[in-house]
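Reviewers of the previous submission asked for a worked example of the structure-prediction workflow described in the proposal, so we include one complete record here. The input consisted solely of the amino acid sequence. No template or homolog information was supplied to the procedure at any stage.
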Amino acid sequence: MKDYTYYLFDADGTLFDTGELIYQCFAYSCRKFGKKQITKEEVLSSMGLTLRSQFEKYLGPIRQEHYHEIQSEYMNYQFSIYKQYLKVFPGVAESLEILKSREKKLSVVTSRKIKSLTTYLKHTRMYDYFDALITPENTIKHKPEPEPALEAMSLLGADKDKTLFIGDSVYDIECGSKAGIDTAFVNWSHNNGNMFKVKPTFCIDDMKDLCA
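From that input alone, the workflow returned the following structure tokens.
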């Protein structure tokens, strides 16, 4: 892998091991608002989409006023249990520290909203590693469209040929690819990168591969 200057990271499934946390929240919300049982596999396969897109995938079209109610209940429940479930994948914090020591510019590019992203980065002591945070509040279009990656690059002053997008889902890889930058799929993902229509530039087994 070549040496990059700018690194864009997805959050859930890449930095954070939040699979169980997210599943518990969707299972709770779907039972409450849709009287529907969903499997963990359904939830994990949709990670990377915006919250509304995920809910509409499970519950069908949702009126705006009803969505606000569902979203509020979902996030309140998540904030009540995240300390029990939130984890950081092995090697992530150490790798971020190495990259920053080499004066690399880092950004999070996520479908998670800013309030919970900031809370979780601070809880895991990773907040200060990042120079920019791109969330659904920053762009009109979201992953897999290229706008989130392009917005991060604009804030970092990044050149395309010096930028790498690291993620765990097809939405991350497509977002980076459409933005014209290299991508890295993390092999600790719940998804199988070999099945993607858009192939990542690299596959990595450990976040420390970025520092080799």
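The chain has a mean pLDDT of 94. We consider this example representative of the routine output the project will generate in years two and three.
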